[in-house]
Amino acid sequence: MKIEIDVEQFARDIKAGKSIGGANGALGSLIKQLTEAALAAEIDSHLAQDLSSNRKNGYSSKTMKSDHGTFELDVPRDRNGNFEPEIVKKNQTSITSEIEDKILSLFALGNSYSQIAKHIEDFYCVGFSKATISAVTDKIIPMLNEWKVRPLEAVYPFVFLDAIHYKVKEDGKYISKAFYTVLGVKLDGKKEVLGLYLNESEGAKFWLQVLTDLQNRGVQDILIASVDGLKGFPEAINSVFPNTEVQLCIVHQIRNSLKYVGSANQKQFAKELKSVYQSFTKEEAQLELDKLEEKWGKKYPIVFTSWRNKWENLTVYFQYPEDIRRVIYTTNIIESVHRQFRTLTKTKGAFPNDDSLLKLLFMGIKNAQEKWTMPIRNWSLTISQLAIHFDGRLDDALNL
């Protein structure tokens, strides 16, 4: 069957001054004709293969969105009702992925559904409801679920674990939930977010589940884990990865300490505390902590009790050379990821459900990882030092 396309009308529209694209552009009309021509060819092919006494049965109309505006598409029907067009699926409302890609791109930058709808209308002269945009962004969820269970590498020299909190609606009320981030540094020195986890609170018991998930996905060994000062965290890590050395985050410890120091003394105390964690050796750090306690101990005893109780895990980094120490000295690597999360979510007071939060943060991670193309500074020297310090544990991974 030969389908006639009115290309001459397209030419006349252009000559008459009509724009090519846009809501009322000449190209929109041509796209409608081409799509309907393809549908006509599809139903003819379908009927030719149908052995029953089937035949055409008029048309149904549906509103389609394209890069060049909205138009009404006449979709042919058959009497038996078994015609399933391929070029425009039964529930499809857009004939191009370009708009959907643009929606996802805008969503990944932290735009609200209202902002996305306005951008799309400005770009393409096509109106999208919030429900439609939500349906488009829901396409992220299968990608997220596949990503969450992907296999991981066997050995990670460094892993950073931390949580950030958000308000999420559950059973009609908003509650605070902990969003767990696990960031690894691979053998090539490049960063990779290993997983996303969401729970009602941050606790060592849940971290145990997270670590078990990493193990089930192929992780056999972690050399150094850098974590916050959550009680029971080091024990949870070593119950799954018994040979991992656990470094408590100095930044978290400093912040926690300053909460118990009077506001008038915080600046001075923070300045003097540097002499402890910026020492060259663990022994020197111990002496500096003693001096600091002599001055401030009676006034702020809880601060020094915390440092003493966590001392062994706070001072792990002193045993390493400078290049290794620089990587684990703080959790700045994971803090930078969380800063990106906060940028994405700063206009969101709360989230209507878990998926709305997870799909936004997942897109944020995908954006971040596109920029992680270079290894950590001085990585060749760092991995060589790790191979010496952790004798034998990197041999197979590095083919030594």
Automatic annotation (TrEMBL):
Region (Disordered): 54-75
Compositional bias ranges of the Polar residues kind: 54-63
A biological-process GO annotation: DNA transposition
Keywords, sorted A to Z: DNA recombination, DNA-binding, Transposable element, Transposition
One GO MF term: transposase activity
Basic and acidic residues bias (residue ranges): 64-75
Protein origin, superkingdom: Bacteria
Pfam family, one: Transposase_mut
PANTHER family: MUTATOR FAMILY TRANSPOSASE, TRANSPOSASE FOR INSERTION SEQUENCE ELEMENT IS1081
Family: Belongs to the transposase mutator family.
Function: Required for the transposition of the insertion element.
Protein name per its UniProtKB record: Mutator family transposase
Species annotation: Arcobacter caeni
